[in-house]
UniProtKB/TrEMBL annotation:
Name of this chain's protein: 3-oxoacyl-ACP reductase
Domain of life: Bacteria
Keyword Cytoplasm: no
Xref: PANTHER family: DEHYDROGENASES, SHORT CHAIN, SCP2 DOMAIN-CONTAINING PROTEIN
Pfam short name (any one): adh_short
Length: 117
């Protein structure tokens, strides 16, 4: 059985690294057009998808900011007229425990990991 997403449009948040990148690449390999959303590195994943014959676009919306998410959705709709799939893998980590984190870093982690989804 082959899983096929031909012509479907997927948004993958946190799509530049780790599981997000893996999801973006897998969806594209199965025919989906992919919005690779990440604050950093989305262009490389788009280039990797395109090199394999897939279709993708980069987007840098901060998922903890509703206005930026709305704009990302509007860009995807303008490009491909639909959105079928959302994979939310955005996660923020500052590589240290909460007790050692600045209030600013703590806010960034909470905004991305709790408010984003």
């Amino acid at each position: 059985m082959t899983i096929c997403y031909n012509q479907q449009v997927a948004i993958v948040t946190g799509g530049a690294t780790g599981l997000g990148r893996a999801h973006a690449m897998a969806l594209a390999a199965r025919g989906a057009r992919v919005v690779v959303n990440d604050l950093y590195g989305a262009e490389q994943v788009v280039a990797d998808i395109q090199a394999l014959g897939g279709t993708a676009m980069a987007d840098h919306a901060n998922v903890s900011q509703p206005g930026q998410v709305t704009a990302m959705v509007e860009r995807a709709l303008a490009q491909w007229d639909r959105i079928d799939i959302l994979v939310n893998t955005t996660a923020q980590s500052r590589g240290q425990s909460f007790s050692k984190m600045s209030l600013e870093d703590f806010s960034l982690v909470i905004d991305a990991n709790l408010m984003g989804p």
